Amino acid sequence: MSDIIMDIAKWNRLLDKVKEGLMVRTDSREVQDGDVFVAISGPLCDGADFVKQAIKNGAAYIVCASQIDTESAELILHSDPRKALVDLAKAYFKTDSSTVKIVGITGTNGKTTTSYLIEQMLTSAGMKVGVIGTVSYRWPGFEMDAPLTTPGCWQLHEMLAQMNEANVDVMVMEVSSHALDQERVAGLNFNAAILTNVTQDHLDYHGDMESYFEAKSLLFSHYPLTDKRGIINFDDPYGKRLLESYSPSIGFGLGSPDELSGDNLCGEMISCTGKGMVLKMTFGTDTWEIETDFIGKHNGSNLLAAQAVGLHLGLTPEQLKATSFHGVPGRLERVRNDHGFDIFVDYAHTPDALKNVLSTLKDLNFKRIITVFGCGGDRDKTKRPLMAEAACKYSDVAVLTSDNPRTEDPLEIIKDVRPGMKGCPMTIEEPDRAVAIRKAVKEMTSEDVLLIAGKGHETYQIIGTEKRDFSDVQEVTLAIKEIYG
């Protein structure tokens, strides 16, 4: 007992020092004289293994789960260093006193588009909005490219503090299943939690779909606020399961909520063409319509999710009608050109996402659909033939190429994808993505549509361990210029 009491006393003293400005690090390479080092373990490493390097770099305090020799540094034992980091981050950045409302978005597909739609909606309503997501981290006066969809715990609390200082009203953030499983968002108080959908992805990490769904569900079962609202897609089977167990919530969808109780935002697609859509909403006794240049049912679902958040935050149907919803980088992004070609770049890198995008294009009555796609290296191999099946089901020409091969041989990845290519009217295999895009452009006529899928907004390609400059939008623009002048 005396050891526990002594550790608690040491821990409280450390918290006080951190509140006064003592710096905390989780990367031993970044430690400077006098810092605190928190030894967090990962799936492949023990945090205690990095303590010696942290001490060598000047760490004065070590927070660790095991009794180890810390030489001249003071050891503070903690049963869970990840939770210790949360408390230290809250102490350092004073995020418990933040007035910024937080909206978290999880799901396999649609997180980024939904975050942009919420940003546009709330900005139109006169609010200051911050966004943390796949494309960038941004708020009024600040923007940086996003290295991760959801950053680490310390950086999240730092950015929340900066948003609070900038008088941001609402922070909208994409919350990945990895981040939930690794407790990166611990210590944040979410005012709303959105589930867009759950389809196959990241099984190399989670193992099976049920574990993947359970990770997504943590956004709802943890991080509670008394007025937190679940915003959940009742068209999705996993979403329907979550709606049956989580309250309070708003269900949303383009279908029927069936016998689900509670509040539901129901959408009806009045029209959907290549020029855009008209979407009718019903919520209780209120009905309203929105006209937008977005296309596709999946974007109708994303619009509903955003509007459900607006309703939860107090916006009226009149305010929602007044919102101008416009494009999202790399999400069915039209590549404008002088030759009138219909070319879209999309981030679709899962079988379900690719199916959704291609089925959207199929409904627009182009003469042919030409699809450029690939599969990432060092990722879930089981989805590779499924990606090909999705491409071939809807495409007249399927161009199989590299995505981010990482440390795998691109030809071996293509070999894994190939079994799903059966039945496609025409196939082209080209491991060089730039060359593949040029071959696809050469194949086009003015009546066709070209979809370049998988990388979307990304401005790089990972080959080996190297990030090389590469943009699908820039590459296809260059291809058109080179081929057609």
TrEMBL record:
Needed co-factor(s): Mg(2+)
Keyword list, A-Z: ATP-binding, Cell cycle, Cell division, Cell shape, Cell wall biogenesis/degradation, Cytoplasm, Ligase, Magnesium, Nucleotide-binding, Peptidoglycan synthesis
One Pfam family per UniProt: Mur_ligase_C
Gene Ontology annotations of biological process type: cell division; cell wall organization; peptidoglycan biosynthetic process; regulation of cell shape
Domain Mur ligase central: 105-309
Record-annotated Mur ligase N-terminal catalytic domain positions: 23-68
Residues spanned by motif Meso-diaminopimelate recognition motif: 403-406
EC number assigned by the record: 6.3.2.13
EC top class, as a word: ligase
Free-text description of this protein's post-translational modifications in UniProt: Carboxylation is probably crucial for Mg(2+) binding and, consequently, for the gamma-phosphate positioning of ATP.
Function (record text): Catalyzes the addition of meso-diaminopimelic acid to the nucleotide precursor UDP-N-acetylmuramoyl-L-alanyl-D-glutamate (UMAG) in the biosynthesis of bacterial cell-wall peptidoglycan.
Family: Belongs to the MurCDEF family. MurE subfamily.
Protein name, UniProt field: UDP-N-acetylmuramoyl-L-alanyl-D-glutamate--2,6-diaminopimelate ligase
Species per Swiss-Prot/TrEMBL record: Maridesulfovibrio ferrireducens
Lineage, highest ranks first: Bacteria, Pseudomonadati, Thermodesulfobacteriota, Desulfovibrionia, Desulfovibrionales
Protein's gene: murE
